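As agreed, record passed on underneath.
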Amino acid sequence: MDVRHSHGTEVHVVRACYEDDAADLIAVGGAHSVEVLLLTESSCKTIANFHIGTRVTALAWSSRVSSPSSTDEWSIELAAAGADFGLYLLSKSASEEEEIFPFGGGRSGHHGKVNDMTFCGGRSEDSSRYLATVSDDKMLMVWDLHPTIDIASPPFPGTSPPSRPQPTTYVVKFPYPLTSVNAHPSTSKELLVADCRGSIFLTDWRSDPPENEQDSWRNSSVVELVEPRALADSLVGPSAQWSGSVAWRRDPSADFVGAAYGSRFALWDMSNLAGGKPYMTGTSFAEGGSQFRYVLPHFSCPLSFPHWVRWCPTYPEYFAISTSSPAKGAVIHVHNVTYVYAQPTVFNIAPRPLYVRSFDFVACRGIPRIVAAVGREVIVFYIGVDS
């Protein structure tokens, strides 16, 4: 059965936790707060609520998390980005109340909308230490949340001095606004970074910085993947600029990369790059705007709609795409990579004018479920049935 939860404001971002001990946790970002839900087969309940005072634009789960269903000594930690361009580290445990640690504000952080974020420490002890963020300001920033040095910085307006050292950051500048970032499931140095023109960069953020900061993206980029039609369309004019979404398939090898731009999706086999061109492309939403994952740049045409893509963490042959176009209501298409040219399974969640702002696969074992942000509601539904 579907599970529905009313957040109270428009829901802008949802993120499922992929950690084994917390696969039943969902983070919900609204107009001014982040809510953490504990999900069961037929219901959900709020276990934490963080009021950050600004619209949430991106969320990412830390590996330092465990669910109340797994242990009595549970704890949660995640990062959030706000419309004020600030970043927030959010934490709570069974014995402590909600704590909000703001960072990345002022001249030390982003100067445009933060469109996506991901923890990027791999499976090492640094898995919760490094956080990557991308923005309309054309910058990838990797934040060290636990620096060994304390660089003094002024507190946020209206707040007391921070109780911990402010994070330090490593910056990589790109030529165009950045829309999506995704960390390799296993390694601690590789990031997929997508821009608004159809290019995807496999980036080694730990590489030595160049002397010329303007060329830092060239120095850090190991491989550039290109969806030719999206790149060609972006050269036509501003009305053709799409925000892209990119993701590694959630298996240990991470050999496959998926992306969505405009009306199309593309898949790359990283073991056989073929010059950076996709080995498979297709159309999912003819009207454009999909989530392998996207946030609309502030300068884009109002008729451009975001597309998001997600790989299923429990059944990696499945990926899903949604659109933020309201033309057909709230709709998600689920594809099977084994039969990628077959028609997708279509899930109509809600009628027009509602649409999917954000979605993710739930990481619980069993029949895959999707959590979607639709209007003021969070909706969780199965994509199959017991056989």
In short: The helical segments are 216-220, 228-234.
